[in-house]
Amino acid sequence: xxxxxIPPTRSLRWQRQISSPLARQVDIxxxxxxxxxxxxxxxxxxGKSAHHRNRRAQWLVGTLLDLGPTFIKIGQSLSTRAxxxxxxxxxxxxxxxxxxxxxxxxxxxxxxxxxxxxxIHVLYQDFDPTPIAAASLGQVHRARLHTGEEVVVKxxxxxxxxxxxxxxQIVGRLVRWIDRFVPNARQYDIKAxxxxxxxxxxxxxxxxxxxxxxxxxxxxxxxxxRIVVPKIYPKYTxxxxxxxxxxxxxKVNDRQxxxxxxxxxxxxNHLGICAYLKQLLQDGFFQADPHPGNMAVSQDGKLIFYxxxxxxxxxxxxxxxMVQTFFAVLKKDTDQVVSTLVDMGLVEPMADxxxxxxxxxxxxxxxxxxxxxxxxxxxxxxxxxxxxxxxPFRLPAKMTFIIKALTTLDGVARDLDPQYNLLSAAKPxxxxxxxxxxxxxxxxxxxxxxxxxxxxxxxNKPNPTQSAIERLESRLEQGELKIQVNSIxxxxxxxxxxxxxxxxxxxxxxxxxxxTGAILLVGQISGGAIFAFAIAAFSGVFLVRSLIRLMWRxxxxxxxx
Length: 561
Prior knowledge:
The chain is of the alpha+beta class.
């Protein structure tokens, strides 16, 4: 029996703005201007205070939620861009979820009937008007076909295509303006980032494309009986309505429920990681948003994938580079890792790559063979984010969704097993590659070649003492010890010089403003004189602050000497 619909919910602010492009333009532009000002203020004025940054970051999350689906998705993707935003912003965006209420089920039924061309009772034997899930792009209802098959029906939010088109047109204008008038922003290639977002998110709201993605994904895992992909029903699917098989399961990060039915979370961890390595390194077609709502575990221990809207592809040349990087990490070949990172555009080449190699070497040593404790991982992550401000690391637009997928997957894996190790979990995947013929085309051939090379390396691997001696010799040859000692004094000198220059600048501004005020006062231009004296006083405050910090810096340097 069809159930009665529930009362409609109140429309959200962004829904009311769809009919007013001007109001939407003003809302987005004002929010963008505030964010730009806050970033500048926190960097230049507030002394890089973590407290201020945290407060601004929470403001940003609230603003993105208020602006609606387009900006929720953009914020989630930016949660991996430590090269664009401060650490506090990245952390806050990493917790951004689709906290959007469901829309009126009467509207959902009207959309289904309009898209499929028949009344709801003709299409489905039963249809539950109460959604079982709701997100920023749509909501999901349970139903039963007249053939008796249990299905779920995904319905797109009203006006979503119009909203996306309007938002990306507005954001595109802002991006062009920033690219033209803010020269420092060009190094981040924000135009390419905007285009990547537009393409990926534009495909996500096309449910016919999602159905095709699901079929392709199912074909890629046809030989893997522990990976489940729900069946799509094309007859009941359009751009705005998607009907797929109902496949219930336990939320993938629900460790206690998995243990209660006798499923080992570590086994699910290994299964999920190997599945993602296959997507990234072998298929070149991967789910870009693997959060717990998009994956589940069946009662017999199979991994279920649900959402195929946000999918991304890796071109063969980039896939081969990722394969080479993966196996170089397994072999702890720092030079090869750095070389492939440069080829992929993640690191800008410099005359002296020693600092970059040192950072990569630390990462490889910490992650390769042993589990990483959660606190150590968080500490290392913070160190890495600080590196983005000092070293030539960059994240091309094409890598945004790859990094997003990996970081989201890492969070799920740590929920299941806080002591998990990525490379240990990947061993089944590496072993499965060793039997593949190396002459296969595309990424598969490169994978097989690298896997066999890795197995040969493991068989001929030197003992730990020899490895330690070789690493020490390498560090001595590169002069790393000398660089580390000198870098401390060098950084201290730079910080002192920076404070001195800042104090001199404030002194010049304060003096010039005071002199201007005096001249205007003599000329009986009292309004201008007051304004000039106000600037002088304001600059004087920062001058005093800079002098105090310079004095303390000098005392600290003397103590360290």
